[in-house]
Design goal:
single chain; five-stranded antiparallel beta sheet; two-stranded antiparallel ribbon; alpha+beta; 8 helices; SH3 type barrels
Length: about 250
């Protein structure tokens, strides 16, 4: 796979059997339109699948590809980011997101992140909330079994081993349990948004009369901190804060 090239492969729903006939047909039409290079029609059909109540990382990825081919960098990044939330280890999504980000003007140099925070995010994003939750339950039950052995073991050696193993598993289970909670919270609300307007003004106050801080360009990722009367208070990657019209961006 050439890292300098843009991947256009379409991903098929792993759970396509769960789709209704109408959504299945819309998804098929979207794939056909994409292959025929009719990207507007492809995006329309994929959006209609979402409107039917179904979503998946594959659908977000395909929709991101369609918008990228249409030259709509902001929408492409938005849907790649949503795919990354649902499937953080998908190599194709990561690659195409990186390619799309290269199209964003006005690059903002990010501040170095505290290493503990960076490590936590890397571990949290290594798996979905379900995986971390299952791991936590397995360790918890293993810990419970160890404590039962501690109480019922026939020999002192068995009881000692059961106590040490049980206590260790229960303590270790706190980590995947915390990671599962963190993933659930992140998957439900990322607190990040993507600028969709070609140019959006970051202002010092939540009002058009606020002084201009700088211009943000389509595809820029911002962190949401507060909301007031149709305005978002956002934080940029370089630590700078300001107010942005909520209509100029869409939450991931």
């Amino acid at each position: 796979m050439k890292k300098s090239s843009f991947l256009t492969g379409l991903l098929i729903f792993s759970s396509i059997a769960l789709l209704g006939n109408q959504s299945d047909e819309l998804f098929r039409k979207g794939n056909e339109a994409f292959q025929q290079k009719n990207y507007e029609a492809a995006a329309m059909h994929y959006e209609q699948v979402m409107e039917s109540g179904f979503n998946s990382p594959e659908l977000e990825y395909n929709l991101g590809n369609a918008y990228f081919r249409m030259g709509n960098t902001g929408k492409a990044i938005l849907h790649y980011e949503r795919a990354m939330v649902m499937s953080p280890n998908d190599g194709d999504v990561k690659h195409n997101l990186g390619v799309a980000r290269q199209q964003v003007k006005g690059e903002i140099e990010a501040l170095p992140e505290f290493f503990l925070s960076r490590w936590w995010k890397l571990i949290r994003n290594a798996a979905g909330s379900g995986v971390w939750g299952i791991l936590a339950l397995v360790l918890w039950w293993a810990g419970a079994a160890g404590l039962i052995l501690w109480q019922t073991g026939r020999t002192r050696k068995q009881r000692k081993a059961g106590f040490l193993a049980g206590l260790s598993c229960l303590l270790i289970s706190l980590l995947p349990f915390s990671l599962a909670l963190s993933r659930v919270k992140y998957e439900s609300k990322t607190n990040y948004a993507i600028v969709l307007e070609p140019t959006a003004v970051l202002r010092s106050a939540p009002d058009d009369s606020g002084s201009d801080i700088l211009n943000l360009y389509e595809g820029t990722k911002v962190k949401l901190q507060d909301e007031l009367g149709g305005w978002w208070q956002v934080k940029l990657a370089n630590g700078e804060t300001g107010w942005l019209k909520s209509s100029d961006a869409e939450e991931i």
